[in-house]
Amino acid sequence: KINQQRIWDSLMTLGQIGGTEEGGCCRLALTELDRQARDTFINWCKDAGCEISIDQIGNIFARRPGTNPDAAAITTGSHLDTQPTGGKFDGIYGCLAGLEVIRTLNDHNIQTFRPVEVSVWTNEEGSRFAPAMIASGVFCGEFDIDYGLSRADSEGVTIGEALKQIGYDGAEPVGQRDIHRFFELHIEQGPVLEQEKLDIGIVTGVLGMRWYDLVIKGTSAHAGPTPMAYRQDALYASACMIKELFELAHSNEEGNTRSTFGCLDVIQPSRNVIPGEVRLTVDLRHSDLDGLQSLEQKAREIIAAIAEQSGTTAELNCIWDSPPTAFAPECIEAVGNAVKDTGLSYCELVSGAGHDAVYLSRKVPTSMIFVPSVGGISHNEAEWSTIEQIGAGTQVLFNVMQTQANI
Amino acid sequence: KINQQRIWDSLMTLGQIGGTEEGGCCRLALTELDRQARDTFINWCKDAGCEISIDQIGNIFARRPGTNPDAAAITTGSHLDTQPTGGKFDGIYGCLAGLEVIRTLNDHNIQTFRPVEVSVWTNEEGSRFAPAMIASGVFCGEFDIDYGLSRADSEGVTIGEALKQIGYDGAEPVGQRDIHRFFELHIEQGPVLEQEKLDIGIVTGVLGMRWYDLVIKGTSAHAGPTPMAYRQDALYASACMIKELFELAHSNEEGNTRSTFGCLDVIQPSRNVIPGEVRLTVDLRHSDLDGLQSLEQKAREIIAAIAEQSGTTAELNCIWDSPPTAFAPECIEAVGNAVKDTGLSYCELVSGAGHDAVYLSRKVPTSMIFVPSVGGISHNEAEWSTIEQIGAGTQVLFNVMQTQANI
Ligand SMILES: NC(=O)NCCC(=O)O
Ligand SMILES: NC(=O)NCCC(=O)O
Description:
The structure is a homodimer of 407-residue chains. With 407 residues, chain A is of the alpha/beta class. Chain A is 35% helix and 23% strand. Chain A is built from twelve helices and 15 strands. In chain A, strands 1, 2, 3, 4, 5, 6, 13, 14 and 15 form a nine-stranded mixed beta sheet that branches. In chain A, helix 1 packs antiparallel against helix 3. Chains A and B meet through strand 8, helix 8, strand 9, strand 10 and strand 11 of A and strand 8, helix 8, strand 9, strand 10 and strand 11 of B. One N-(aminocarbonyl)-beta-alanine sits between chains B (90, 124-126, 132, 353-355) and A (222-224, 272). Chains A, B: Zn(2+) 1 binds at residues 79, 90, 186. Chains A, B: Keywords: Hydrolase, Metal-binding, Zinc. Chains A, B: This is Zn-dependent hydrolase.
């Protein structure tokens, strides 16, 4: 029913905004490129007859009215921002699939009881502004609006300022829209569906994740005359921590244990200076709360022991805590029924990545649909899914949305 | 004979140009601050009656004529640039001690047979522009002038451009001055003299050192859905290399084995992205050539093995090779005689840091004098030597220079 070529073409067109030589996309949240992508998306939604609203944290809602003006909406959506080394699919797919649902309803002149809405959530990636999923978090009451607007990027520009700069500081109070159920379609960003040769993932939940800032302080000193035994090398200490925490997670992948150091800055680096201070970011994940808690506990012990041995000090500061999420059984079941109608192959799985659906699920019944990622690769310019995979996921989303919009 | 308070005051005054809150100095080569320090130094030398010359790579020579206008000069000097986390003594001391020698000769109306010169060498630290000691290297024929002028900082600004910006692109061809012998006075930058409770180090040579750029390439991927076993994490691989090379040097400090990673950049970092590329700098040192060669060989083996195990690639590229230096016996002896005259305590030692004297020694008989560094600390804002230590070293330099200027 949906038009596979049409959503594919829309994806490829939007991917040109911030498109990289390697075929990926670098379009950080609330940059000029993000503005262009948002404008394009809104124009397409208007062409499809939608009413557009923008809230005070820049979330976009495109609404196709239902026959009952008072009914809460069936909403889908994701994000348009990307990682620095991002692809064309992560997030964008979920927004454009929502638009494809509306275009398909229009093609067939289908009326729905409930309004159908597509949402674009600001700064999902957490790359320019930490934490991730911040604007869906504000929408759902996890963060208050002042916290959201005041988060700053590495240059000190806040979300509030950046919204004004690109003209997306909307008027609508955040979190006031009436959503009946929320469904998010996304690429898997991992290897499971491809390995199992399955078309669709019915997502039952999301790993718990915690983000930390880690500051290691040693003593800067001269690379030549300072004997190795005298050194308090903050980079050596950091290296020992990275290695040990990687191997801890590697040796116990039960519960999807994950440990990632994404950013590392040597403060005032120089080739012939033993680093005196290093700042890192840490990302720990686990499928259950006890597991996540004990992973953090072990990380703290490892970090303290290495700091002690290396004559450095270490400060680990949690800046974001997103507990493991279980999606609503009725929404999981609805996706399951929609898949069965199509004859596509499927399995249930847990998402290793955070999504706006995590925060939405705290406010309204929510679940997610995954399609395979080629090679399991994401947050990489080589991120890819085939046109058939993109089409299949969109069809499942259409089926769920249409059914749910009439209940 | 020399005026201890006068050189101390000059040091403290010059240290205010780029002075930091922590009491250190951040005055990178050929910046506006470096210009101010150079201007101040030149004004003081002019006040002391010196003739000033500036060569095409910005080296400064302040000359006090001798009674024989044709005699080659006795030259001393060091550098005015600092590390980002530098102190007030490293380099600056050697320049101002040279000026103090001239001021003292003036005080006592002493004529010398040979001219006495003080030199300031451009970009000794190697922090803004790699490699270190570049302008003394050009002076002595180690590098050609085009290589020197074309070295670029991390923003792409070349030495040639930076010299023009601060007005220190002099007219004199580089390397044409007639130097009879060169003596450099410096702080030790290491712990030996302090530990041995000695006043003066008679420096017999300098460790061999090699600088490398190391590029590790893995695959950027999502921190959540990517199982640990699938990762090709360039930062994890880097961490293993840093740890193993640190411990290799630590377990064998014979020959003053040193291994330092001063800079590390994650390319396009993001908290939830497994690093796909990391660029590091490596500094290896050893007191003899075979030892340095075998250290590099082991480093190559370790790096290759870790790259293989971690599914990454590693490219180690040597950008600077300064072999171990042995100073001229006649100059070492001259310093030894000068120390004995003073009654100060002393020992012979080898420098772990490179100095302009390394390159000067390839062209003219050269040696160095060290004074203690409090706590052995340098390339750190806490770098310190006492007024008495500063005075003692200057007196030894004066004695050597005066004697040598009359031979
Ligand atoms: N989908 C996605 O990449 N989300 C970013 C949040 C996370 O780090 O999992
Ligand atoms: N003296 C000094 O800090 N020189 C810099 C060159 C080196 O790295 O040893």
